[in-house]
Design a protein that fits this description.
With about 140 residues, this protein is of the alpha/beta class. It has one domain: 3-Layer(aba) Sandwich (Rossmann fold), CATH 3.40.50. Helices cover about 40% and strands about 15% of the residues. It has four helices and four strands; from the N terminus they run βαβααββα. A four-stranded parallel sheet has the order 2-1-3-4. β1, α1 and β2 form a beta-alpha-beta unit. It is globular, with a radius of gyration of 14 Å. It starts with a strand and ends with a helix.
Length: about 140
């Protein structure tokens, strides 16, 4: 059974989009039984153009994934919840269920550093999940 890892950022326009894209790619490479999804608490109109360009340059197309608001059902059904900058009070779920990645720089101020930090966290998460699932 495939389980969902839900990445959240306030506007669903940058950080969670990057994290979900990288996680999905790595999960496929490792054969993990997980898929990524992403959403926000205060969705923007569109994914940041610099983020879409960055991912497109890496062979990942997010043009068909407009920002959207996270639903209560998604919060309760996800195997893992990862907040990248959301105020936990904006999420209708017990804080103990949410992992926070608060060290990710603002994408608008330092996209390369934000990308590197998100990629690091995604790699650690994937390795942890691979260990739990007996994958390589």
């Amino acid at each position: 059974m495939t389980e969902t890892i839900l990445f959240l950022c306030p506007h669903h326009a940058a950080k969670s989009v990057i994290a979900a894209a990288y996680f999905d790619r790595l999960a496929r490479q490792l054969g993990l039984p997980f898929v990524a999804d992403s959403a926000g608490t205060e969705p923007a109109e569109a994914v940041m153009p610099t983020v879409a360009d960055l991912l497109r340059g890496e062979g990942i197309d997010v043009s068909g994934q407009p920002p959207r608001r996270v639903t209560p059902a998604e919060l309760h059904q996800a195997a893992r919840l990862i907040s990248i900058g959301c105020a936990l009070s904006d999420l209708d779920i017990v804080p103990e269920r949410i992992e926070t990645w608060d060290d990710v720089p603002m994408v608008s101020q330092d996209l390369p550093a934000a990308r590197a930090t998100i990629l690091y966290h995604v790699e650690v998460l994937a390795a942890e999940l691979a260990g739990q699932n007996g994958s390589s």
